[in-house]
Amino acid sequence: MSSLFPEGTRALVTGASRGIGAATALALAEHGCDVVLNYRSGADRAEQVAERVRALGRQALLAQADVGDEEQVTAMFRRIRTEWGPIGVAVLNSGVTADGHLAAMSTGKWQQVVGTNLTGAFLTAREATKQMYAGGGSIVLIASTSGIAGRAGQANYAASKGGVIALAKTLAHEVAPRGIRVNVVAPGFIDTDMTRKVPPAHLKEAVQRIPLGRTGTPDEVARAAVFMASPAASYITGKVLTVDGGMIPD
User: Fold this and answer.
1) CATH number (domain holding residue 66)
2) Integer CA distances (angstroms), 156 to 33, 125, 203, 214, in order
3) What are residue 241's DSSP bridge partners?
4) How many domains, in total, are found in the chain?
5) CA angle 173, 178, 181 (to 5 degrees)
6) Mean pLDDT by groups of 10 residues along the chain of 250 residues
7) Is position 195 within any domain?
8) For residue 137, what pLDDT is reported?
9) Fewest CB atoms within 10 Å of the CB: 1, 99, 116, 141?
10) Which positions are annotated as active-site residues?
11) Maximum CA extent, the chain
């Protein structure tokens, strides 16, 4: 497979131990990147992904950190710079859900989701930007169609992912003069652990609204993220690419 990235490109993927994050880490490795694999828990799964990256002939660095914790995030980026040098690509994928209708939602559920999804995106994007200041780079934030169109029962998740989109659009303006691109990939219903928590009846109803008639795969999201991160998208910044089978209108 031909490489989309220059030799020696170092990429970070957050939430890389499973699902979209794992698929993205492997796709980046397939296209020539050495990959830092961030994870909060599930060290065994993260090591399995790292082994697959190495089997593709690329380097892998495991980096455990809670992206919602400022001290852990800054320590992780300090370690990356010390051991590998600055990154040129960051795919910021970490995310959690704690669904429930707004009227019955606890402050704890709100803060849990916003803390990981939005504050985590802010912290990791800030540190990634610092590492890219001198040499340029590309940041891709993984949002959700919930952050564009909303979804009942996901007030906290939709608000956090809508915030991620606004964050990315603003950052794109700020860092473009330094040769840094910032874009968003917004998946719809993708076959991951998160989607498998949706009651089957609700999922069936959702799939009926998808023109392509099925859920997506992590690999399909990963390919979109890799494209947006790569030089193939060199004139694209501040944009949102939905990967949803046509579920929501443009």
Assistant:
1) 3.40.50.720
2) 34, 20, 19, 26
3) 185
4) 1
5) 55
6) 88 97 98 98 96 98 98 98 98 94 96 97 98 97 96 95 98 98 97 81 87 96 98 98 92
7) no
8) 98
9) 1
10) 157
11) 52
CA distance 23 to 19: 6
- The token pair at 199 is 């009651």
Structural domain includes residue 5: no
* Beta partners for residue 210, in sequence order: none
What are 208's strand-pairing partners? none
Rounded CA-CA distance 168/183 in Å is 6
Residues making up the chain, counted from first to last? 250
Partner residues linked to 38 by β-bridges = 63
* CB proximity list for 42: less than 8 A, separation 6 or greater: 17, 18
88 CB-side CA count, 13 A: 16
Domain range for residue 54? 10-187+218-243
Phi, psi angles (nearest 5°) of residue 99? -70, 155
- 95 domain-assigned: yes
Q: What is the pTM of this model?
A: 0.95
Is 250 part of a structural domain of the chain?
no
Sign of the torsion formed by the C-alpha atoms of 132, 181, 74 and 14: negative
Which alpha helices (H) appear in the chain, and where do they start and end?
19-30, 43-55, 70-83, 107-114, 120-132, 146-149, 155-175, 193-196, 200-207, 218-229
Direct distance between the N- and C-terminal alpha carbons of the chain, in angstroms, rounded to an integer? 32
